[in-house]
Amino acid sequence: MGTRDDSDEAYVIGLCDRILGEDALPQHRFDWLLGDPGTSGRRARLPVDAYWPGHELVVEYRELQHDRPVPHFDKPDRLTISGVHRGEQRALYDARRDVEIPAHGLRLVVVRPADLDADGRGRLRRTEPADLAALRTILARGSAEDRGERRPAP
């Protein structure tokens, strides 16, 4: 099994670093972006995939499990602290990020495998020139979510 540094998410963040000329703060946690309360009432700070303070920009790389059920990631037989399975909680927390990040004056850009050179299973082929060009365009204009559009789930 690969490490997080070998992940498609890390690859995308690395390309964004190059385009933006600034190193991201990966897995950054804001004091105001909180999960649901646990049994003790404590609310954990939710991570974002990457934050570039100098650009006031957050990028979320949303793999296929963010848009459709994937049993390996969803763990449908186990409930989370929120009382729902992981897939439902992921959708709740993605929606929370979609609202809270712009509400706090930051730009949110969502990147999906389909935005880059990916196979049918959502794995990036890592065709760097094509992926850099696509990300330059995405970062220049924002994402569908930036423009108030919602993409239908595949």
Short note summarizing the structure:
The chain is α+β, with helices and mostly antiparallel strands and 154 residues long. It has helices spanning 8-20, 71-74, 86-103, 128-141; strands at 25-26, 29-37, 43-47, 50-52, 57-61, 107-111.
How would you describe the overall organization of this protein?
By secondary structure, the protein is an alpha+beta fold. The protein has one domain (4-141): 3-Layer(aba) Sandwich (Endonuclease, Chain A), CATH 3.40.960. Helices cover 32% and strands 19% of the residues. The protein contains four helices and six strands; from the N terminus they run H-E-E-E-E-E-H-H-E-H. The protein has helices spanning 8-20, 71-74, 86-103, 128-141, and strands spanning 25-26, 29-37, 43-47, 50-52, 57-61, 107-111. The strands form two sheets. It has a four-stranded mixed beta sheet with strand order 1-4-5-6, sandwiched between helices. The protein has a two-stranded antiparallel sheet with strand order 2-3. Helix 1 packs across helix 4 (128-141). It is globular and about 50 Å long. Mean pLDDT is 85; it is low at 143-154.
The overall pLDDT average reads 85
H/E series: HEEEEEHHEH
* CATH class descriptor: Alpha Beta
Q: Which structural category do the helix and sheet elements fall into?
A: alpha+beta
With helices defined by DSSP (H or I, 4 residues minimum), what is the helix count? Answer: 4
How large is the share of residues in beta strands? 15-25%
Radius of gyration: 16 Å
Instruction: List low-confidence stretches.
Output: 143-154
Tally of DSSP β-strands: 6
Largest sheet: 4 strands, mixed
Name given to the CATH architecture: 3-Layer(aba) Sandwich
- Biggest sheet, spatial arrangement of strands: 1-4-5-6
